[in-house]
TrEMBL record:
Example GO biological process: carbohydrate metabolic process
Family matches, as Gene3D superfamilies: 1.20.58.1040, Glycosidases (3.20.20.80)
Lineage, broadest ranks: Eukaryota, Viridiplantae, Streptophyta, Embryophyta, Tracheophyta
Name of the featured protein: glucan endo-1,3-beta-D-glucosidase
Family: Belongs to the glycosyl hydrolase 17 family.
Membrane topology annotation: Lipid-anchor; GPI-anchor
Ranges of residues in domain X8: 360-445
Catalytic activity: Hydrolysis of (1->3)-beta-D-glucosidic linkages in (1->3)-beta-D-glucans
Signal peptide from the UniProt entry: 1-23
Classification via Pfam families: Glyco_hydro_17, X8
One annotated GO molecular function: glucan endo-1,3-beta-D-glucosidase activity
Key words of the record: Cell membrane, Disulfide bond, Glycoprotein, Glycosidase, GPI-anchor, Hydrolase, Lipoprotein, Membrane, Plant defense, Signal
Amino acid sequence: MVLGKWLGSFLLLLVRFSMNALGAYVGINIGTNISNMPPASDVVAILKANQITHVRLYDADAHLLKALGNSGIEVMVGVTNEEVLGVGESASTAAAWVNKNVAAYLPATNITAIAVGSEVLTSIPNAASVLVPALTYLQKALVAANINFQVKVSTPQSMDIVPRPFPPSTATFNSSWNSTIYQLLQFLKNTKSFYMLNAYPYYGYTNGDGIFPLEYALFQPLSAVKQIVDPNNLFHYSSMFDAMVDAVYYSIEAYNISGIPIVVTETGWPWLGGTNERDATVDNAETFNDNLVRRVLNDSGPPSQSDIPINTYIYELFNEDKRPGPVSEKNWGIFFTNGSAVYPLSMSTSDQITGNSSVTFCVARQNADSDKLRDGLNWACGQGHANCSPIQQRQPCYFPDSLQNHASYAYNDYYQRMHSVGGTCDFSGTAMTTTVDPSYRSCKFTGSSNSSNGVGFLPTEAFGPISPQGGSPSLQVSRFQCLVSAICLALVLLC
């Protein structure tokens, strides 16, 4: 009995350790309720140009999923609210959904999660009874396809199912949903998945009737007289975002369940509002998202779970002008559809995804002819004397294992070495210059002044070789290898 309890605690620590080791990330939501939605290839080009490594789709758009192939970007696909009932009532429907929208795109498209519905309990409560069956059927389909280690299943819920989120220590889920939520939490724990939370300090502040200061919602420092403290445990909350996440952790704990990490699937701030939406401004949106990124990438959790990072997806990539509702509903985007930034957003303390760099880089063009790309890559690594060792297997720039990625690295290395003596960035028309640093994760392009790209991953070689089946440097494979090694060590110590 003592051994079992010790091993259970040890495994929980390993889960937390593995999340810290891989580091926190900031992704982005891609809504498509747009009059002039760019072609999928242009959307992916915007993501790659701005070093965005994680995206969430609200559906399983075939054009986007195909375009994201071989990009290395981790993708969360969505079962729409309209599909939840069908998937939850039929195992065969769920299996068909997985085969069509997930399995068909792997391994080229790095799909790592399925988000089932959007705030189902509060937006379509009539589907509550089939929500967990929907997750279960999808999980069984993933197991049957042998991709359940690659793809996790969960369902995003809003903060509305926590009626009184402050103080966090006394927060509980709405008792009306007790049975469904308990089943959901058991499913997430049994499948080693995560709780998906949509947390919006914007609404917490604007609907709060002045209870909390604006600085608290924007991650800004609070004066001594404005400190937000949970009276039950004296935890200080420096942001409403942390308090919201902690309120859900305490709500989960109320069911005597632990070990389920929270991923924030939506948060953000609108940059434009109507006459009665005075807090929807460019300054507030830039301040919120810039501070959010800094907060998430410090790899810590809220006060009650300080060692579990809060992986987060910003809402959203583009402004969705076709969304109904007030002006603010249409203006949460960070980019316009032509790829220009609504406002600059710093993805780390040292670089910006929408800013400019003083260094010019040479990268492969999107949709360049593959034969010409291959010839250019071979020339750069051969006659061009580029240093191509980082794009070899087990090296930091090998993944994503794509011709375009490898060519970009080789082209740039050649260009940085030779442009001062006449070397050009052309390669038979397959290359182009950019001021956006193409470095990512532990892969640093020649000429980059950044020591970190802001996504928090350790070099892939720290976890051993990565199987191409798994996708990107944050693969479950690497995490699993690390976990197995640690468990083996523990058993040896016990024996």
